[in-house]
Amino acid sequence: MNILLVDAGNTRVKWALADAAAPTGQWLAHGAVLHAKLATLANTWRALDAGSALVSNVAGPDMRAQLTELLGPRPVTWFASQARLAGVTNGYRNPLQLGCDRFAAAIGARALDPGQALVIATCGTATTIDAVSADGVFIGGMILPGLALMAGSLAKNTAQLPQATPGAALPSTFADNTNDAIVSGCINAQAGAIERAVAAHGAGRCIVSGGAAAYIVPALRIPCIVRENLVLAGLHAAAGEFAC
User: Fold this and answer.
1) Which one of the listed residues 7, 62, 101, 176 is annotated catalytic?
2) What is the pLDDT of residues 11-21, one digit of tens each?
3) How many domains, in total, are found in the chain?
4) Which residue range forms the structural domain that includes residue 170?
């Protein structure tokens, strides 16, 4: 049976149509839209041969209401973190408090890279850096402002600093102009947090994803793999354990 997988994040809504029995990450169709363009998904989703939907939503109750309307009459399961699912044990003090996107991303990363000690860095509106043990325990993680939020905070709260934007090339660590100095500071802060997490965890593999990954990965001094759509992959891996 085909299932519609939906990842409603803070900036974009990503989706994929998958055969629930297919290998994790193999989509029949997929796409993404900014929140402002959400209504454009109505016709797209209506035409899909999906008997049900599995949704991860961290964008709040208004987004949930909009998605409910867009998904129409098909049964919808709202993904939530729990103590154990799809081979991942949730080590959060209160497992239900772990963001459902982080839990789904951990499941997706483990499904794609089984048997590895993992650090999973998702570089979006916020940057989350999480550790999963080789035997599938979500140990915990850290949350810090994303690249754009870091730069925007400097511009908003420091009168003499402009709103900085990264260019095509990675700036020098010790930049010779203010824009590049801000970008260098923000990128190195992100990269340093990821490298510190890998060193602390002794991870066999570092996985990076998210919209800002293209800026942060070149600054890393450790090996890493870029994998997109980890939340969707996690939903796919977990779909068989729901009545979808």
Assistant:
1) 101
2) 999 999 999 88
3) 1
4) 115-229
